[in-house]
Amino acid sequence: MNFQCDDDDTVVIPCGTEVMIDSATYESAESSYFGVLNVSLNNDCLMVHITSSGCDASSWELTLIDSENIAESMPPQRYMKLTLNNNEACLAVFEKEETFDLTSLQVEGTNEVVLNIEGLPESVLYTY
Q: Given CA atoms 100, 103, 108, 112 in this order, what sign does their dihedral have?
């Protein structure tokens, strides 16, 4: 077996959960209580650090939903929501970080898109 890589081989490391692109889910998504502590980009990966009350955060499901609407501006803009499924009924406060793969949000003909995530004070410029 040969495990060597050529110099021109590209290694793609997936970065996390896929973004849900669904206008009906976006419209029906209700806000649940949680705080966003930090949002950062690392290549095609969006890291979202949240806080909420619960028992241990292990069952939390954070989802990033895209509205399927793309504003024809320069750069184009997408509209999104974060939702948290948290059925834990404890009063302790925990933090959790989730990573989302943004490659499905790329817009053809450009190398950047503005991500407007509901509830965040500033938009995120995703460059690819």
A: positive
DSSP per residue, 73-116:
SSS-EEEEEEEEE------EEEEEEEEEE-GGG--TT-SEEEEE
Residue found under tokens 């669904």: 22
pTM given for the model: 0.85
CA 35 to chain centre: 15
Average pLDDT for 9-21: 78
Backbone angles phi and psi of 30, in degrees to 5: -100, 145
C-alpha distances (whole Å) from 56 to each of 33, 67, 81 are 16, 30, 24
- Indicate the average pLDDT of the chain: 90
d(CA 68, CA 6): 39
Contact 78, 115 (CB under 8 A): yes
% of the chain surpassing 70 pLDDT: 90
The mean per-residue pLDDT over the stretch 66-76 comes to 96
